Amino acid sequence: MEQEAMARAVLSGGTALGIELGSTRIKAVLIGPDHAPLASGAYSWESRLENGLWTYHLDDMWQGIQAAYAQMAAQIRARYGVTLRRPGALGVSAMMHGYLPFDRQGRQLTAFRTWRNTKTAQAAEELTGCLGFNIPQRWSAAHLYQAVLDSEPHVAHLDFLTTLAGYVHWQLTGEKVLGVGDASGMFPIDPDAVDYDQDMLDRFDGLLQAHGHSFTLRQVLPRVLLAGTAAGTLTAAGARLLDPTGTLEPGVPCCPPEGDAGTGMVATNSVAPRTGNVSAGTSLFAMVVLERPLTRVYPEIDLVATPSGAPAAMVHCNTCTSDLDAWVRLLGETAAAAGARLDTTGLYTLLYRKALEGDPDCGGLTACNYYSGEPVTGLTGGRPLLVRRPDSRLTLANLMRAHLWAAMATLKLGMDILTGPEQVALDRLNGHGGLFKVEGVAQRLMAGALDVPVAVMETAGEGGPWGMALLAAYAVNRAPGETLADYLSQRVFSNVRERCMMPVPEDRAGFAVFLDRYCAALAVERAAVNAL
User: Fold this and answer.
1) Does the domain at residues 322-458+498-531 carry the CATH identifier 3.30.420.40?
2) How many CA atoms lie within 13 A of 432 on its CB side?
3) What is the per-residue pLDDT across 132-173, written as a single tens digit (0 to 9) for each?
């Protein structure tokens, strides 16, 4: 679009705004009628470990949302010479799962407990047995039931339980709703009803009653909505929350709030059966849209839903790039101390590409990247480790390769269940997230590690906020009967370029050797968690 046409789109409401609250950044992206980004804003934040729990402060969240929105709006004024007053549509997404409880007056009952917490093992195990469905530790249902088991006094005052995206949407619109993808990380979804599974709700309510609680789970959970349905409009109070200057007008139609897994699927055009995506940033997860149900319950596999309600298998790993990023920063400090001046992009490019020069098995080096507990491997805590034998080859190339392999190792253990015993058909995985920013490195290594082709689109850097903006655009622009898969394939991705890399045999063989050492080193990791 030409600049004048873009300005007209901003003034006429031919835009859609996506806001996503990620684990390290809050970002706002405004797209035009062609679905390409017009402007964006971002704000950095991070979780805090307080009283033994990982949390974020909601005051920090609102500060971040306002800063990201203001930066995006300023870009619009600078680039197109017009003021954004009313986007054509709005959507909010955020980290899935966790625990955000409120009382009848809307008061927050506890600090926000994020997906990163792994103190709900008893609840997750009991619920999985009771429901016959894998309930991971990070799911909202597990957090609630653990609070019940621990006799936390706030449970008696619980009136509403939601996710971070659901909370923001509630404050912006007054609507207590949630997109089905995000809802599927709170409680199991019945794929036929595209709603919470009623039989499982009844069983959960029996547990609540056994502990003396009279409320039902459905009473406190958000209402479930499919992608493309109306989810309220921006209120005057909500507009002020986003834009305290008063420039933003109320009345903007809002789509259902979604989780970051769903927006990742949308941003990579991975919502149809036999498609899948891998999102690699602070955490790491792969989503595979299923053609048929799995044959049994696996603790390593979450069963969730796409934003349009299709069943999907999710392998979620709590840690991906945190330790890798720490080593990059350390090596950057070393380079700076020696007089070399590299910006962040140049530093990552140098070090990631160096990994391709390493031995296929990393020369005997083994890294474990756990910053927190990891349910896939049964770890209750995390201690980042680098382990080597005296005869290992400690080189820069092997060090970087070991940390990149480590970022993918736990995901491989879960994916092997899908591609092995379950024989899930997967044509390829579409990658996005910070791990893939250096072209061709993590993509190639991921293909070798998972033994599946990995594609990265030219839009991969746009990520979840862009995916949320696409969901907002779909809600207001879709034709009658037009599915989300059709909308994405025909209107958004029809001309998007991509690069697909096949597994390299020596990478595949080298990773297999590394993974054997990695699994053996988990005994060292467990000892470190207990000792340190």
Assistant:
1) yes
2) 27
3) 999 999 999 999 999 999 999 999 999 999 999 999 999 999
